[in-house]
Design goal:
- This protein has 376 residues and is α/β, with parallel strands linked by helices.
- The chain has 15 helices and 9 strands.
- It is globular and about 65 Å long.
- About 2% of the residues have low confidence.
């Protein structure tokens, strides 16, 4: 573990114990130039204008940022929708950099041009996370319903890397782009970039409250299959074998984890949402996590400190199903309140999709290890 990672673990550990909002996410806008089939938040400009709550303005975000800094925020993620589409992005970005925040950005990469690259060179973010949705224009069009954009994303990745900007590739795997899995992994290796792939797609209940447990995604069995295939393609044979053994032993870390999900006190997966991190929606609600519509606090009408206190109190009341807590597979599927809520409509519900995926991972692990033993 490098020095920066050790420092981050120390800070998060201390923040979690003292309920300091060390990390925040600003969801600047739900508007995006892509229309991804599984997206949890996307809205059109028309839908935003017709919303009963207006989109936050530059002055709102600056006020929130100043109050959050006073409360202890250091790490800040700017996301959307597509954050670069938000009209005051660059003004806000410069102000936030000057405030001293360590900023990461989630983007689809298609809107990054030479001017943006020069701006990032002058005022570098901590990291830019570009989501890779495929390895060619056809796959992008099928999944994202956007034409001719892969070349733009590829240009952005290559140019940002050449400019010395720290990059990470995210990948949301679905039935529409899994055909490109091998090529995307090879692409990340050629670019010498980490690619974090997820085969679990949250039901988009924030976009449509009727979609509990529903999304354009893999079956639980295919989610498990491609999760393991991704791990196999990204690691060595020895590492893959060890991973399969961990599955059978009852404990694996889920893919796609960020620094907000690992508790450095005991190394286990224990979400820090509502303890050391928070999310602010485009229309001014504070939530523990962007995947959850509840609990939420109206940040427009409350100071940040009061909103944070209320969120920590309400988050502390959340609990998972007693069935999940006692399940022998709980450290394989690693359910969280956000997953349970998205799958069942309540944090105490049993997310059966995850149960089925975990069982199928165990089945694959048993069959693979048995075959390997038989061939020796």
């Amino acid at each position: 573990m490098n020095t920066n990672a050790k420092l981050m673990d120390y800070l998060y550990s201390k923040a979690s114990r003292k309920l300091i909002p060390l990390s925040g996410t600003f969801e600047l806008s739900p508007v995006c130039n892509f229309s991804c089939r599984m997206c949890y938040v996307r809205k059109t400009q028309k839908e935003v204008k017709e919303s009963p709550r207006p989109i936050l303005k530059l002055s709102d975000w600056l006020r929130i940022a100043k109050e959050a800094r006073e409360a202890g925020m250091l790490y800040l993620l700017l996301t959307g929708g597509e954050p670069l589409l938000w009209s005051d992005f660059w003004t806000l970005y410069d102000e936030l950099i000057d405030m001293g925040f360590l900023i990461s950005i989630n983007t689809n990469g298609s809107l990054i041009d030479e001017k943006a690259v020069e701006h990032f060179k002058r005022k570098p973010p901590r990291q830019i996370n570009i989501t890779l949705y495929g390895a060619n224009d056809d796959t992008y069009e099928k999944l994202c319903r956007a034409k001719g954009v892969f070349s733009e994303v590829n240009w952005a990745i290559r140019t940002l890397k050449e400019a010395g900007i720290v990059l990470r590739l995210n990948c949301s795997l679905t039935p529409q782009n899994v055909c490109d899995l091998d090529q995307m992994i090879q692409y990340s290796k050629e670019k010498e970039l980490q690619m974090v792939a997820a085969t679990y797609m949250f039901p988009p209940i924030r976009r449509d409250s009727s979609l509990i447990g529903v999304n354009e995604r893999f079956t639980p069995e295919d989610s498990a299959k491609y999760r393991l295939k991704t791990y196999y393609l990204q690691t060595s044979e020895r590492e893959y074998q060890e991973y399969l053994k961990k599955i059978l032993s009852g404990y694996v870390e889920p893919p796609g984890l960020d620094e907000g999900c690992i508790d450095p006190i005991d190394g286990k997966v224990r979400c820090r949402a509502g303890k050391a991190s928070f999310w602010i929606t485009w229309d001014g609600y504070m939530t523990p996590c962007g995947m959850m519509p509840e609990p939420k606090v109206d940040l427009v009408n409350l100071p940040f400190s009061d909103s944070w206190k209320k969120i920590t109190e309400e988050t502390a009341q959340l609990c998972l199903s007693g069935v999940c807590d006692k399940c022998k597979n709980r450290n394989i599927c690693n359910p969280c309140a956000a997953m349970a809520y998205a799958e069942t409509g309540q944090s105490t519900g049993i997310p059966k999709y995850l149960c089925q995926a975990a069982v199928h991972m165990q089945k694959i692990a048993k069959e693979t290890l048995k075959l390997d033993d038989e061939t020796r």
